Amino acid sequence: MTASFRIRKGKGNSATIYLRVTADNQRLEKKTRETVNPIFWNGKDSTVKNPNRVSATTDEKERLVELKKTLNGLSTYIADQYRNRKDTEIINGQWLDEVIEAYYNGGRRTELLDNLNNFLNHFIEKILPHKSAENSGKVLSTRTQDKYRKIIEHLKNFQTKENLNLKVSDYDKHISDRFQDYLKNDLKHSAVSIGREITIPKAILKDARRMGIQVNELVFTEVKGSKPETPCPILIIDKKRGIDELQQLKDFVTIDPRLKLCRDWMIIGIHTGQRVSDLFSLSPNQIITIGGERYLVHTQQKTGAKVEIPLHPDVLEILEKHGGNFPEKFLDNPDSNTTIFLKLIKRLCKRAGLDRLEYGKKYDEENKRYIYGHYPLYEVFNAHSLRRTFATMYYGEFPTSVIKSVTGHSTEQQLLNYIGKKDDPLARKFHEVWKRQREEAKAAEDIRKAN
């Protein structure tokens, strides 16, 4: 590969300097940002004349010195880029344009993005809006994208605090561990949150690798996130033990209109199995009738899953009470509405006597973190408990495939993990069948003897 310069005269005493590259049996020529007075150009040597041997002002000579340095630097940079090119790079006019621009801008696109903060900015602007979940292929929900943005903000603040200016390839298990300590000690995040949060930088680094940016490959195997079980207390409905906390909630008498409204929403949540974000977006327009029975067809906000929810008699009764509509919301703003709902849930459960000790988490305002322990049920019962109560209440009554079609879980194993159940080994099914066969044989024998 050879590189040289030539000029193309324009109007007056200014000529544009062009870079000519000969490589791979090609002759490429592109304009640089430099100009020169033709009288100071040495056409034979394709460069600027020696400033000490021309008749020029001091300013002109100083400019010629800088111009010579710039052209020499550009020539060296082009040679380095060609020598270190990847096998997949195509040497053409576009390549030369990119390299020239990179010389003036401090590096090629991938070189600039090798700086971790630069890549994080690029990720937010160009990649995140179109990023898909690996398991479903669907574009990440707004909520998940917000989580990415928050972790990126934490990662930048972590670098500032630690006085780090990392390259993408610098991010390894050691840096991940330090970031984890930052989340725990500085931001007071819980182990549950951190277990999920440290996996997000790994996902971001995968996109960097796809772009050809160098990453530390060990980070994908050495940094392991965790998903500790998040306590989510439920209402116990166990007829054999004579416990029915749902009925206890329904039987509680109150004249407080907000508590009545809260109870209606709780019952709807328990019998529909929907997340609170979906619960308050339910509409009577989504109700259809099939075979004389009424169903609610709803597309879940978090996953985009379309679910068909059979409407329980208790839900139909609430709709009828509200003139065929769902109960009114507490506030129009979704976040504020949810906040009030959560507060009312705890107040209602306390008033209804749901005070058995249950393992859960409470937020410690002083230390700004969740504290795990055993508390009265009304202190740790939350909106998510409604959905989990639904899944647990009907587990064993209906096939898991039926339940997950309502909750929107993509696999039965996800549902079983969600409600804390272990999948029965297939071999156990044999014993169930054999037991039923023995019972049927015994019944047949009893009938035979009776006759």
UniProtKB/TrEMBL annotation:
Residues 245-420 form the Tyr recombinase domain. Residues 133-216 form the Phage integrase SAM-like domain. Keywords: DNA recombination, DNA-binding. The keyword DNA-binding applies. InterPro entries: DNA_brk_join_enz, Integrase-like_cat_sf, Integrase_catalytic, Integrase_recombinase_N, SAM-like_dom, Tyrosine_recombinase_XerCD. The keyword Disulfide bond does not apply. One of its GO terms (molecular function) is DNA binding. GO terms for biological process: DNA integration; DNA recombination. Belongs to the 'phage' integrase family. This is Tyrosine-type recombinase/integrase. The lineage of its organism: Bacteria, Pseudomonadati, Bacteroidota, Flavobacteriia, Flavobacteriales.
